[in-house]
Amino acid sequence: MTTIDSITIETAEPEASARFYRDAFGLENQVRTVESDAPTSGFRGFTLSLVVAQPGNVQALFDAALAAGATQLKPVEKSMWGVGGVVQAPDGAIWNLATSQKKDTAPATREFEHLVLLLGAEDVSASKKLYTGRGLAVGKSFGSYVDFETGQSPIGLGLYKRRALAKQAGVDAEGSGSHRIRINSDGGAFTDPDGFVWEPAAS
């Protein structure tokens, strides 16, 4: 089973980005940063999600992100699916903070249960075929959404129709240039149909 070791964010200021992820979300090894000036504009075609246990944790992470320099894209609010909010990190990466629960059952913390990478795909079926061919098993699949089984991986993986993902994030779907993200795994080096680069797991 393919395991995602970490993701690498390409940014003009890697040290500042690494500091943001530590201060806002307590992330160390799961998210790495590297210097890059690759041209990019608009929606980069992916989002990262921190899935937490309760609404108070969503708010705590949301507030910490804003305090560390993030920009609000969607405020924390209830929906039929639970509670969530969306922020954009100073390096441009979009983060969804969410829970399926609607009430707190304990004091709020900044702890999270899962980190999930959602890749926007123009053709979800084609991307799904490539990924299953490279050893990723499908956990859930319905309509324009696919969730893969990644075992004990510290990072989960899903596919979503690009325009639907942008709408979920609260941004325009148009974008071009580099995704400014690399996926580090034991699944080998390759590039998917939408240009997302996979590399050997970081040492």
**Radius of gyration over all CA atoms, rounded:** 16 Å
CATH architecture descriptor: Roll
Mean pLDDT: 95
Order of helices and strands: EHEEEHEEEEHEEEHEEEE
What's the overall geometry?
Answer: globular
The strands making up the biggest β-sheet line up spatially as: 5-6-7-4-8-11-10-9
User: Structural class, judged by helices and strands?
Assistant: alpha/beta
Percent of residues in helices comes to 10-25%
The CATH homologous superfamily is named 2,3-Dihydroxybiphenyl 1,2-Dioxygenase, domain 1
Low-confidence runs of at least 5 consecutive residues: none
Estimate nothing, just give the exact number of structural domains. Answer: 1
Distance between the termini: 19 Å
Oligomeric state as shown: single chain
Largest sheet: 8 strands, mixed
Count every helix, treating DSSP H or I runs of 4 or more residues as helices: 4
Number of β-strand runs: 15
CATH class assignment? Alpha Beta
Beta fraction of the residues? 35-45%
- CATH topology assignment: 2,3-Dihydroxybiphenyl 1,2-Dioxygenase, domain 1
